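Two folds, back to back.
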Amino acid sequence: MTLDNMTPRQAKPSATRRLRAAGTVLVLVASLAASGCSLLPSSNDSNDSNDPATTAATSASAAAPKAKADAKPTQPPTAGEALADKVKASLTALGNNTSSPNREQMMTAMLDAGAVKEKVEISIDRTPTGLAVDAIEAAAPVAKECVIGQVRDGKAAVTILPLLASGRCFVGDQH
């Protein structure tokens, strides 16, 4: 038998090679899908972008949705939001005077903000070993929310979180 009479055999692609090819196709399809229409030229990519009339029309159309969004009637703040604003101001003033306030100072700041004394919860200001804490927190329930304020290194932070099922703002009995 001579080499001229022999027909070349086609090697069947192995399962690994087919898997790699399928993976490559999937990666290409995913990248095209992720890029979406960004590959297509937009209407703003035309050569008329320096035309003053086009620029004015584009600016006017961009301003129109903003004007409608600003036209929404503003709702008055909730009781929690109103107290949070007052607590933020009160704790900021406290933080400006002392970087690490104690429990009495936090109570005074919360009462100055309008919180009800019997409902204010304040975290400990000393660890069980007698060291000063890094931050002190105070909380006051309002409706079904808790206005929680913290002073750390003289900086105040305030947030509103849901009231716990126990009806309190803090977990545990260290308040």
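---
second:
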Amino acid sequence: MSTETPSQEHPHAARIESGTGTPLATWVRRIDDAGGRELDHTAIARLLPQRWEISGWWAQGVTVAYEQIIGRRVVGQSCAGDFAASASRTLPGEPDAVRERWDAFMTAARREELGLEQPSLSDTPTWRYWRAGVSDGSRLSVNITAKDEGRSTLGIEHKGLESAEAREVWKIAWKTVLTTFTEFMVSTPSPTSDQENR
């Protein structure tokens, strides 16, 4: 029995066509004609920009969609076979302040409830990270960057999940956590502004 998905039914077909100027069905045909079913993920992603006008970023997206269409992986599954869940929210505040609030929100009790280990924090010029291992062996990365004046985007990436079912459970969990965190930000004064008001 075939596990293939028609390209027009792929959830990102319209986005890929808009971003690359080429329908996903055409990309599938091109990759098939180039022997894509015998190639691994890296080889396909390298082949695309070599043969056609497509950026490396879109080449990755087309490759993932192709692998999902031919039944090599399901939506949310990495080329290593594991799964990932993600969620994001735009929040008021600069990246440092948002991470400070997230860290305060993620109390020891809340981390224990979610099965999170002690977090580590790191920075780049444009990103703030809050990362933690998870008791099931998966990994969590909370990535925060400036969106526009006075607002930041907080993105949750939960990688290394063992099944599509675990992915769905965590997607729901992280959406709930983000909703609760948004309420926390509105209802709880930030430590920085509290100190400034003294």
